[in-house]
């Protein structure tokens, strides 16, 4: 076991194993998600570890900024530990909800952080990985970045503030990403508002060293020295059919418009959406539309917590994780198995108050 890292003032940062590496380098508080074999997937202890470190550094004058990255070459973070979530859903426990509560509180903390929060979104950044990065103040992608919210594939709904981010993307591009669960590269991530800067992966080490040697006022200048123009967004050229089709009032009409549009890519998107959990697709569309009218991330996270808790009781969450991660047969049996069979009441129950009450973000 590694010794407990300390801040520049000698105060110990709480230690909870090595799945998150915490240290201070120069003026920079560094957080490295350290489960490379699992593409740094988040478990409950990791969430607590990150938030404890952020809290310790918030009032430490020696730490000017925070940088988050991931161990290994595959990515920043593949999301939450969905095997543990499936286990919780199967045995009817509240473990997954407790994880989500603390995870969403961390997402809000990142969004409200008083110091520059730099996220290196290199490689795979999915689900929960988006939550700990895309709410930061300085979001860096590379040529290896693959950013997405894959929840409808596993019978879930975009969370960690994902419906906030995607509901505010240009036109209906966020709706397209949410329903199809398709990831995007660096250029699209910047275009969609999920990232700010493009830095080639080979320059990240030099960028990190530069950030460690500067104060908060110099963060933007340091990033600008290494940033390059982002690749042209691919999704922009598809706006003609994305905006026309995903602006429909119902999920059934979205799929119908995609099939009838005439663009081969639209037809492919229709088939992709049709393979997702019908309940997840309908709830996701409703969550996005509601999120557009909510005042900010805190209110959206409160909504997402209600939706996530309701989804925990859905057979599709257990089945979707089984098909994608456990058995890997990619052949989930959804219940209900068509969009038409998912009723308005089925959707509405996902927005009922959570059994253990709100997150209390308005009080933070």
Automatic annotation (TrEMBL):
Write down the EC number: 3.1.2.4
Q: Which of UniProt's keywords are assigned here?
A: Hydrolase
Q: Which InterPro entries match?
A: ClpP/crotonase-like_dom_sf, ECH_dom, HIBYL-CoA-H
Q: Which GO terms describe its cellular component?
A: cytosol
GO BP annotation list: L-valine catabolic process
Coiled-coil intervals in this record?
Answer: none
Q: What class of enzyme is it?
A: hydrolase
Q: Which Gene3D superfamilies match?
A: 2-enoyl-CoA Hydratase, Chain A, domain 1
Keyword Transport attributed: no
The Enoyl-CoA hydratase/isomerase domain covers: 29-351
Instruction: Identify a single GO molecular function assigned to this protein.
Output: 3-hydroxyisobutyryl-CoA hydrolase activity
Query: What is this protein identified as?
Result: 3-hydroxyisobutyryl-CoA hydrolase
* UniProt source species: Nocardiopsis sinuspersici
């Amino acid at each position: 076991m590694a010794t407990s890292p300390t801040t520049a003032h000698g105060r110990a940062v709480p230690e909870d194993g090595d799945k998150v590496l915490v240290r201070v380098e120069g003026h920079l508080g560094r957080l490295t998600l350290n489960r490379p074999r699992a593409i740094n997937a988040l478990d409950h202890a990791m969430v607590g570890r990150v938030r404890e470190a952020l809290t310790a550094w918030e009032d430490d004058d020696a730490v000017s900024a925070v940088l988050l990255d991931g161990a290994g070459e595959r990515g920043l973070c593949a999301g939450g530990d969905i095997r543990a979530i499936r286990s919780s859903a199967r045995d009817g426990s509240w473990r997954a909800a407790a994880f989500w509560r603390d995870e969403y509180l961390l997402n809000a903390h990142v969004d409200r952080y008083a110091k520059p929060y730099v996220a290196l979104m290199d490689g795979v950044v999915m689900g929960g990985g988006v939550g700990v990065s895309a709410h930061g103040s300085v979001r860096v992608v590379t040529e290896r970045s693959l950013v997405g919210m894959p929840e409808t594939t596993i019978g879930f709904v975009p969370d960690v503030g994902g419906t906030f981010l995607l509901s505010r993307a240009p036109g209906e591009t966020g709706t397209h990403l949410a329903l199809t669960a398709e990831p995007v590269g660096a250029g699209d991530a910047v275009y969609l508002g999920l990232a700010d800067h493009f830095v080639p992966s080979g320059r990240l080490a030099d960028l990190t060293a530069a950030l460690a040697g500067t104060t908060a006022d110099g963060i933007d200048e340091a990033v600008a020295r290494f940033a390059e123009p982002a690749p042209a967004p691919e999704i922009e050229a598809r706006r003609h059919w994305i905006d026309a089709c995903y602006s429909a009032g119902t999920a059934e009409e979205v799929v119908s418009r995609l099939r009838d549009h005439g663009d081969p890519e639209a037809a492919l998107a229709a088939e992709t959406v049709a393979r997702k959990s019908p309940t997840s697709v309908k709830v996701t569309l409703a969550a996005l539309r509601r999120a557009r009218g909510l005042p900010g991330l805190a209110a959206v996270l409160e909504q997402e917590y209600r939706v996530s808790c309701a989804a925990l009781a859905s057979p599709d969450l257990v089945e979707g994780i089984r098909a994608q991660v456990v058995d890997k047969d990619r052949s989930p049996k959804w219940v209900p198995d068509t969009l038409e069979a998912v009723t308005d009441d089925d959707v509405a129950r996902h927005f009922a108050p959570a059994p253990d009450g709100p997150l209390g973000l308005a009080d933070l």
